[in-house]
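We include the pair:
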Amino acid sequence: MTILITGATGLVGARLTPRLLDAGFTCRLLLRPGKPCPDGAEAVHGDILDPSTLADAVRGVTAVVHLAAVFRTRDADLIWKSNLEGTRNLIDAVKAHAPEARFVMSSTSHVYSMDNAHPGQENDPVDPKQDYPASKVAAENELRESGLTWSIVRFPFVYGDGDGHLEALPEHVGSWHPAQRMSTIHHRDIATAITLALEGKFDGRVVNIADEAPLSIFELVGLTGTKMTSKSEALTNPWYLHVDSSLARSLGFTPAVRTVYQAQQEGLM
């Protein structure tokens, strides 16, 4: 199976690609000129914002794993251009040059409402107000309506494999309530989920993935060696950033790294 991977040098892609190579997939990476290509992978130079570069990238592939996205920036135009227009360009290229290819797209648990009355579920209505999750919802809708064979995998907080994401958490939680619980997923289990999607187990579905133990922001920040201020006030939005991953489990997904504490104990951070 030949897979085109976008965002292969990013936080998720840089750790997913070697695992897919080790699993025997032929990986073609869409890279801007000058970006390094891992041993064993094929580089094709291009950009999702330049449609003229995408025909050769997708031609002959069995599947596309679309990870490329813009997240932490104040540039709303760049977020929408990259996450929506870039996805639209890629979908158009696949429809024109590889219409039988399976299209797997990563998305985010940030799409769920802060006011949810339960952990985020795939069939919950979503109408996020922030640019990043709103652009991802718009891109999801483009893919759903494309006529391609598709699946969308929504990631919660991603960590592990030395990515520095957890260590950077204290910079971003600001005034969050320390009791807020957040679902998490290790890179090892992202690879498991993406493999299931490539095998067709998630076809035509939006699927949340998460490990078995959402942790409080207080605990997660504590794992970085930073101390949050304690609070005893009631938590207003108890289900924010907490997702229900029972659908994924019913489709064969089982996390190997069941908790962040297990990752710490086994040296997988």
